[in-house]
Structure formats: structure tokens, C-alpha cells
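Review form for a predicted model. The reviewer records the input and the model, then writes brief findings.
Reviewer: anonymous (R2)
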Amino acid sequence: MKNNVELIENIVTNIEKVIVGKQKEIYDIMKGMISGGHILIEDVPGVGKTTLIKAIKES
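Model under review:
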């Protein structure tokens, strides 16, 4: 269990190098991925939704 938490924290730290100020959204996306659920990201244009997903994919 500890290794899983460390892995998630490492992934979040990696993503935060690219996306600043979206920690809650990053953790929400991680929870959705872990649970196998669907994720819908809604926000105004130009706030980094696509960049966030690309950063997660690269992590």
C-alpha cells in the first residue's frame, strides 16, 4: 500500500512541474483513473485541460 501511495505522489509531483495550481484536479483525475471510472473535465478555454492530460499521459 505504501508503494502505491509513493507512486501516486511521484506522478503528481511530476505533473505539477508542468501544471501549476491544479493539484485538486490532478488528484481527482488520479482517483478516476485508479477506480476505472470516467473523467469529465470542464473549464473555460485556455486553462490547460489538454496540457494536464498530456502531462498525466507522459508520467
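Findings: The mean pLDDT is 88.
Further findings: The helical segments are 2-16, 23-35, 49-58.
Recommendation: see findings above.
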